[in-house]
Amino acid sequence: MERIYLDNAATTPVRKEVVDAMLPYFTENFGNPSSVYQIAQMNKKAVDDARETIANALGANANEIFFTSGGSEADNWAIKGIAQAHKAKGNHIITTKVEHHAVLHTCEYLEKNGFEVTYLDVDEYGMVHPEDVEKAIKDTTILISIMYANNEIGTINPIKEIGAIAKAHKIPFHTDAVQAVGQLKIDVKDQNIDLLSLSGHKINGPKGMGVLYIRRGLKIENLIHGGAQERGRRAGTENVAGIVGLAKAMEIAYTDFDAKIEKMTKLRDKLINGLLESIPYTKLNGHPTMRLANNSNIGVEYVEGESLLLLLDMSGIAASSGSACTSGSLDPSHVLLAIGIPHERAHGSIRLTLGSQNTEAEIDKVLEVMPGIVQRMRDMSPLWEEVVKNK
Ligand SMILES: *Cc1c(COP(=O)(O)O)cnc(C)c1O
Predict the structure, then answer these.
(1) What is the pLDDT of residues 147-161, one digit of tens each?
(2) Fewest CB atoms less than 10 Å from the CB: which of 89, 139, 211, 227?
(3) pLDDT class of 327 with cuts at 50, 70, 90
(4) Which tens digit of pLDDT belongs to each residue from 185-194?
């Protein structure tokens, strides 16, 4: 059976060019970048070049790029590192109700350790309003952490405006840009970003690789104590293959960028409009336009999302009912609840996220099989029977 992978917000396949770039660093180029002989210095150069490539893609300087083990580590470092380094000034952090758990659970941990956190509401589309950020600022605010784009519903926040507010109040501004990188152009200087997290495996790069951008001069606690790697801030022998792979993935993501994003947006809209038109009682979750090119999230009434996922899987289609971290639990998604979707509708929501490898034929196939699956599920539902009777 043909397999159609539409869960690219959870992870993406590693591109062949990325694997090829990584391979030599597992075998002949095995040297430790901290050593002095040639095979090691070659690897130091590979790490330096990768840092430069990533810095260029973000509008940053190479010495502002710090490699981590992924997006979660970058989020943890940004938030705990700033909280720890600035606690003499205050203990207040501003974030939102729709962040990834890597941010939310880190903030909850800090709350147990004497910090105060404001979790901002978002509007019905999942967007944060800059004026709400400004209103939440106190004398004790030491960090604002607001995601660039949401991993469940794809809503894009007005990051530059929020960054400008943070800057005017001299408060460090962190953004979890794990979903935005590769789908939106980023310029940390222009967008007033002090700290930015990204992850390799969301952009066709390796898993277990990420970056925290830290604006030069910003005070932050070191993450891992040990050797002098990452300028002494995050010790440990570099994952050279991973670093090279991440840089290659970044480079590819921003090559022919506009054309690729335009094509993906067209496929996304075909999928969204096709599903909304062919399946009654469906609604788009998230923002109609300020939305990632790869994200569709559809509320399907009178079906149970987890069962819909299983039936789609049996037809070869991989999707998600929310964020991968919450599947397996029966709690409805915190993001869907935060945008005011009632429990029943949140349970019947499904996320289909595109990747650079998806084709129009695959979208056609989904549009061909999904309406029938939903109809069969509804035919077995007593709730649906009522709907039909009352029509
Ligand atoms: C995937 C994701 C993360 C976590 O990244 P990992 O590399 O898997 O640790 C953090 N934030 C967002 C928005 C994500 O989508």
Answers:
(1) 999 999 999 999 999
(2) 139
(3) low
(4) 999 999 999 9
Q: Which of 146, 159, 178 for mutating ligand 1's site (highest number of atoms within 8 Å of CB)? A: 178
Residues 227 and 308 in one domain: no
234 shares a domain with 263: no
Rounded-to-integer distance, Cα 180 and Cα 187, Å: 12
* Amino acid in the structure at residue 321: S
Contact 29, 39 (CB under 8 A): yes
Cβ(200) – ligand 1 distance below 6 Å: no
Query: Closest Cα to residue 182, out of 198, 203, 165?
Result: 203
Angstrom distance (rounded) from CA 348 to CA 282: 10
CB-CB neighbours of 3 under 10 Å: 9
For the entire predicted model, the pTM comes to 0.97
Q: What is the pLDDT of residue 329?
A: 63
Could you write out the DSSP letters of every residue in 57-108?
HHT--GGGEEEESSHHHHHHHHHHHHHHHTTTT--EEEEETT--HHHHHHHH
Residue 205 CB less than 6 A away from ligand 1: no
Ligand 1 centre distance from Cα of residue 174 (Å):
14
Question: What's the total number of domains in the chain?
Answer: 2
Q: 51: Cβ below 6 Å to ligand 1?
A: no
What the block records as the tokens of 57 is 């893609």
Please give the residue range of the domain that contains residue 273.
Answer: 4-12+256-390
Q: Which residues have a catalytic role annotated?
A: 325
Q: Is the CB of 179 under 6 A from ligand 1?
A: yes
Task: Please identify, among 226, 253, 280, the residue that sits at the C-terminal boundary of a domain.
Answer: 253
Sorted by sequence, the CB contacts under 8 Å of residue 367 that are 6+ apart come out as 270, 271, 274, 275, 278
For ligand 1, mutation pick of 14, 72, 196, 207 (most atoms within 8 Å of CB): 72
CA 366/CA 272 separation, integer angstroms: 11
The answer on 140 and 28 residing in a single domain is: yes
Locus of tokens 């159609």: 4
Atom of ligand 1 nearest to the CA of 202: 1
Phi, psi of 27 (to 5 degrees): -115, -95
List of residues 6+ apart from 119 with CB closer than 8 A:
95, 96, 97, 104, 107
